[in-house]
Amino acid sequence: MMSPGGDAMAADAITGSDGAGSGLSDLLAGSLAGVAVVLVGQPLDTVKTKLQTLRGLYSGPAQCLAHTYRKSGLRGLYAGSSPAMVAGVAENSVLFACYGLCQRAVAAVTGARDAKQMDALSNAVAGCAASVFSSVVLCPAELVKIKLQAGRELAESRGQRFQGSVYRVTKDIVRHHGLGGLFRGLEMTVAREMPSYFCFFGVYEAVREALKPAGRTRADCGLLATTVAGAAGGVLLWTVTFPVDVVKSRIQLDDAMPTRGWTMCMLHVYRNEGMVALYSGLAPTLVRCVPSSAVLFLVYEYTKKLFDT
């Protein structure tokens, strides 16, 4: 899943120049912005994944961050960066294309003249529908990323040696589970993405509407207002769907866990570890929202201007 900043970029790109987000400059600027978000936010994403999947091993985000750095240096904190970047670029491209189609479909149903006339709820519905398609390209990359981020600790807990790389992890998955194994956790990815994008697009547009200059449109919101809107949407989407993300991360990391009945897995975690376990790693995720959003919008806005000149 894109970071909250990444979600904000998607919405701004789509609702910006042509209402459908299908322009080449939007795709190129969005892809570069997605790479920038990974560079800025990957260490905290690594901490989030470890806290989600390795319950009890670390006392908190700070201790997890420090231990990972001492053990593996910056390389450990940036584990999984390559598939994360692939996920960001692929998800953005598919999301932009599908969101434009979904916007036009929703506009036709609601009677809106065009995408720019759609209200926050209509944009939320369109984003929710588009997320189904982006989940398909996102799932394999997130699967590899999670195994690279937390695979070492899982292997050590079982007395095994972990030698991870994108190639080795991918090859191991395909060898043991076939190509279908790359889509382990797809059902949960869709279950996370649909409410996430519904919440994000709705809140994002509502906040931009509230912060727009007097007598102007949402498209006239400045960088600060747009960043605030993206951060607000990001905080809500992660808070609402984080328990699903926790279960998804655990199932994708550990092949011994069943892939079916993820709602029962969530209930099992709740009964045995409490509600706090379903929100393990939320703090670093929310902290990541602010710098990720700021960097993403700076890169996106200036890159798009460069492509449009």
From TrEMBL:
It comes from the Eukaryota. Solcar repeats lie at residues 21-105, 118-210, 221-306. One of its GO terms (biological process) is mitochondrial L-ornithine transmembrane transport. Keywords: Membrane, Mitochondrion, Repeat, Transmembrane, Transmembrane helix, Transport. It is a multi-pass membrane protein. GO terms for molecular function: L-ornithine transmembrane transporter activity. Coiled coil: none annotated. It is found in: Mitochondrion membrane. The keyword rRNA-binding does not apply. Pfam families: Mito_carr. One of its GO terms (cellular component) is mitochondrial membrane. InterPro entries: MCP_dom_sf (IPR023395), MCP_transmembrane (IPR018108), Mitochondrial_Carrier (IPR050567). Belongs to the mitochondrial carrier (TC 2.A.29) family. This is Mitochondrial ornithine transporter 1. It comes from Acyrthosiphon pisum (Pea aphid).
